[in-house]
Amino acid sequence: MFQRIVVPLDGSCLAEGALPHAINLTKALDTRLVLIRVLQEESGGHDRYPADPVAWDAMQAEAVAYLDSVASRLEALGLKAEIATLEGDPVDQIINYTRGDGHTLLVMTSHGVGGISHFMLGSVAHKSILQAHVSFLLVRALSDQCNPIKETHYNKVTVPLDGSSRSECVLPIVEMLSRHNECTVDLISVVPSLGHHYQVARDDPRLGIVKELEAEFRTRIEDYLTRIGDRLKNEGLRVQSEVDIRDSTIAAFWEMTRKGQSDLVIMAAHGKSCVSHWPLGALPLNALVYGETPLMVIQDLEPHEIELTFAEKAAREAWGH
């Protein structure tokens, strides 16, 4: 399980949108909560420290005071938070810090001090999540209004499963969150349409065989979800399940999530078709970039198991290390 939850804050109300979720997770998972703030060298942006040591000391003091004020507000809710200030590039510092101390859950918003934009993800969130190679919860930042800090509540948690043991790595966390929130667990799975995949025409005499195979696969996954659901119900959880046959697994997943009005989606970073040198499989990557619901992805690989991207290799060569 996680040894700590790390929440990067930049002083904006948007970034603080991660705190209600962090409170819930910290209590549910009974773990440490760490608030961090990164100060970057001045170059015309926000929260960048100037070359003048006196001015930098003042900015660092302001950052510590800000984190202390947030920690005080959390303490009023019965939660003790640790704080840390870091210096350097925000993405590099977030990555290094989250990797530096055992199993970490990174909780952050899609946008921060740069403000809401037409991009689904801000640059810091995008780069940090894709390159940190740790489990994360991404909160969609939809309002820049500052609200009082209070614990969020999940009424329904959606869990996509594909029958693989990798996809099931989320279940211990799902159980703990469901107990803490007394929420419904919605198990979903999609059977790819074989007729669509293999482009079988409606007048093709083999279409009947294809439909029989689809029905067989659907029955298998329904039985699988029933077994998982019964196991969770035996633990006292409320569980429902849904299986569908669709041309597009990704499109079906989002349609089922919207229809179910889910408060949180929890999925594994990889499933049965795992490509182990990529940090995220196709479904979680699509959910990260285009999703509308808070998304938790549990990384089933260790950072050293994930290969460097072409860009990361080129950068290392250019930097000489």
TrEMBL record:
Residues 1-140, 154-283 form the UspA domain. Coiled coil: none annotated. InterPro entries: Rossmann-like_a/b/a_fold, Universal_stress_UspA, UspA. CDD domains: USP-like. SUPFAM superfamilies: Adenine nucleotide alpha hydrolases-like. Belongs to the universal stress protein A family. This is Universal stress protein. The lineage of its organism: Bacteria, Pseudomonadati, Pseudomonadota, Gammaproteobacteria, Pseudomonadales.
